[in-house]
Amino acid sequence: MPLKKDEVNVGLKPWEQAPLGYDFFARDTRKVALELLGTYMVHFSPEGVTAGRVVETEAYLGPSDPACHSARGRTERNAVMFGPAGFVYVYLIYGVHYCINITTDKPEIPAAVLIRALEPVAGLELMQRRRGTHKLKELCRGPGRLAQAMGITRDLNGTSAIEGPIRFYPPLPGDPRADIVVAPRIGIREATDWLLRYYVRGSPFVSYK
Questions:
Q1: Cα separation of 74 and 55, whole Å?
Q2: Residue of 106, 108, 138, 170 with fewest CB within 10 Å of its CB?
Q3: How many domains would you assign to the chain?
Q4: Does 119 map to a domain?
Q5: CATH code (residue 155)
Q6: pLDDT category of residue 177 using cuts at 50, 70 and 90
Q7: What InterPro entries does this protein map onto (predicted)?
Q8: Regarding beta strands 88-93 and 48-60, do their DSSP bridges make them parallel or antiparallel, or are they unpaired?
C-alpha cells in the first residue's frame, strides 16, 4: 500500500539511516529485487536531494537469462555488470530514456535489478521541474520517467550504490508492510513468461499491473 499523502508531502528522510551495503546486493538477484521493494532510493545531486520508495523492480539473472544484457557477452555498454555487486548500471533505451539498475549476485555472475518505479517522497519540486508535470503519479512511474525525475544520466554509470550519489536505504519505522505481486517482466522480447517482476500491490505508482 502507498504511504499516506501527508507523509509524502512532509518528505521523509530515509538517508538519516545507514544505507544498504554490499552484503545486501551480493545475493541472489531475485531475492534482492524482492527485498528492494519498500526501500528508499536517494539521489544526492548538485541540484538537490530526491528520494522515492521502491515499488517495482525486475530481476535480470545473468548469462542464463536471455533477456539480460550480459547474455550477449561483455561490451563497453554493459561492462559494469561484470564487476562486483552494488554498482549503478545506467543505459539508454530508444535513444531517449535512461534506465537505472543495480548490480547483484557473485562477481562471476553479471546480473542486475532494474528499478522500474518509485513512490516520490522527497525533492518533489525538483522532480516536477525535471519532468515538466505536477502530477505525483506521473513522476516516477516507469523506468524512463523515474530516471528523468531522479536526475539519472549515463554519468552515474559505474558509481557505487553504497558510497556514491545514488544510495538505497531500508524502510523507515512505521512504513506499511509491502504486499508483493510477482509477475512476468515487460518491455522485453525473450523469456517473457519468466516471473521476475515484483511490485507492491495496490500502489498507484507502479508502471504496469
A1: 30
A2: 108
A3: 1
A4: yes
A5: 3.10.300.10
A6: confident
A7: Formyl_transferase-like_C_sf, MPG, MPG_sf
A8: unpaired
Kindly list the distances between the CA atom of residue 36 and the CA atoms of 115, 162, 189, 206, in Å, as whole numbers in the listed order.
9, 14, 25, 14
Q: Residue 187: which domain range?
A: 5-200
Residue 173 domain flag:
yes
Considering the domain boundaries, does residue 23 fall inside one? yes
Mean pLDDT of the chain: 93
Q: Of the candidates 109, 123, 190, which has an alpha carbon nearest to the alpha carbon of residue 151?
A: 123
* Residues 205, 154: Cα–Cα separation, whole Å: 24
Specify the 3-state DSSP secondary structure of 25.
Answer: helix
Pairwise CA distance, residues 161 & 167, whole Å: 5
Residue 205 in domain: no
Q: Which amino acid is at 207?
A: S
Q: What pLDDT does 133 receive? A: 96
Cα atoms in the 13 Å half-sphere on the side-chain side of 8 = 14
Grid coordinates of 126: 525538483
Place of cell 516507469: 142
> Distance (Å, rounded) from C-alpha 71 to C-alpha 93?
17
* pTM assigned to the model: 0.92
